[in-house]
Specification:
By secondary structure, the protein is α+β, with helices and mostly antiparallel strands. It contains 5 helices and 5 strands, in the order E-E-H-E-E-E-H-H-H-H.
Amino acid sequence: PPLTHLHFKAEGDAEFRALLFIPSQAPWDYYTNLSTNDAKARLSLYVRRVFVDSDAELAPEWMAFVAGLVDSDSLAINVSRELLQDSRQLRTIRNKVGSAVLRELQRLADAEEEYIAALAEIDALDAPEGEKSELVSAVEVPPALYSTFWAAFAPSMKLGMVQDDKLRSLYVLHGGRPP
């Protein structure tokens, strides 16, 4: 089952709609493909609802865990795959897909951090255990926890941190965050 999903529409240089899934656990061959540099995001490219390519690089290499589809209205349907790979619009799509996944991962991390902070605040209260347990049960548990994602995809995220500085805020080391 997916940990979370994103559905968004982007406009500008390249207009497209995307439906992306972030899984809760790695596929069985994920780390084999990651170590042999065969890892690619499982994203299918559609142009005006017509399937074009499943090998188009629609996400950065470190985002090989992402699955879904991208449907663009601004790409030409009758171009070769080689020309499509060099397309400026495809680079724009790749950047926007990467940014959307990063925002979602940051949202998951922030929600989990708020949850942990709320539990720590309740624990620090000078109240009887019965009251504390009632307060703990009232705290809303985030539907998807970033720690679940991190446990499954830490090697991929670490690869991404070498390639992309934006990932440093999502780096988790022994349950904490770097300064």
